[in-house]
Amino acid sequence: GEALEVNREVNCVIDFIHGCEDQLQKLKKQKEKGLLYGIPISIKDHINCKGHISSAGMVKFLGQVKEEDSVIVQVLKHQGGIPFVKTNIPQTMINYDCSNLIFGQTLNPLNHQKSPGGSSGGEGALISGGGSILGIGSDVAGSIRLPSSFCGLCGLKPTGNRISSPPACSDRTFVLAVTGMLGPMARDVDSLALCMKALLCQEMFQLDPTVPPIPFDEEVRLRGNPMSPSAQQQS
């Protein structure tokens, strides 16, 4: 309901993921509750969800319905999360705004005269507007960090190859020197940490053997604020 409201205001959702109710019923029957049990999670357009398109904001991809969930979606579900919407992006995603000719312009919920940033702009707008509490964006050169900044959120671009990334569009004729990464977006750092902890699990390492099987290290995160004056002096 909240997502619908926010979408009416700022045009950030491109599709609602079907089967959410079924998944919730399935989760209730499981003995083990995952770290993300029952949490609705928004997903950036280009991340594959079974039965849905990954448009990249381009007409040529509109007929290509994906036959299976990407690894990250499988792991989110394994941890009890419920992917429930797909969110808007700029055409081709290499942009710091958020509009395309199929789904139109996404607005910043804090100021409708402004952009939510890009390319994970639909995520930024939806979470900032209160329509989602956790989302998955992606970032090569700022595509999580910019919308997080523009929309007053927290976001993380993990280290390259830390978690499974979707394969690049097969017809892309260039190779990026900087590794593109999927990562979480939310209202606070604790939510990002919980999401990373949930993603870095045995399921992820089994589904994608190219991901180093290194679990999330809570101690590293809790060593204090690296930007504090004492930490700067030590470094």
Your description of this structure?
With 235 residues, the protein is an alpha/beta fold. It has one domain (2-231): Amidase signature (AS) enzymes (Alpha-Beta Complex), CATH 3.90.1300. It is 29% helix and 14% strand. The chain has helices at 2-10, 20-29, 71-78, 121-128, 145-150, 189-199, 202-207, 218-221, 229-234, and strands at 13-16, 40-44, 82-87, 99-100, 104-105, 134-139, 154-155, 181-186. A six-stranded mixed β-sheet has the order 1-3-2-6-8-7. A two-stranded antiparallel sheet has the order 4-5. Strand 2, helix 3 and strand 3 (82-87) form a beta-alpha-beta unit. Mean pLDDT is 91; it is low at 230-235.
- Helix-residue proportion: 25-40%
Fourth-tier CATH superfamily name: Amidase signature (AS) domain
Task: Report the mean per-residue pLDDT as an integer.
Answer: 91
Strand content: 5-15%
Specify the CATH class: Alpha Beta
| Contiguous uncertain segments of 5+ residues | 230-235
Shape estimate = globular
* Helix segment tally: 9
| Backbone structural class | alpha/beta
Sheet bearing the most strands, described? 6 strands, mixed
Alpha-carbon distance between the two ends: 48 Å
List SSEs in N-to-C order: HEHEHEEEHEHEEHHHH
What is the CATH topology? Amidase signature (AS) enzymes
Strand order of the largest sheet: 1-3-2-6-8-7
Q: State the total count of DSSP E strands.
A: 8
Whole-number total of structural domains: 1
Protein name: VDHAP protein
Domain Amidase: 5-213
Pfam families: Amidase
GO molecular function, one term: fatty acid amide hydrolase activity
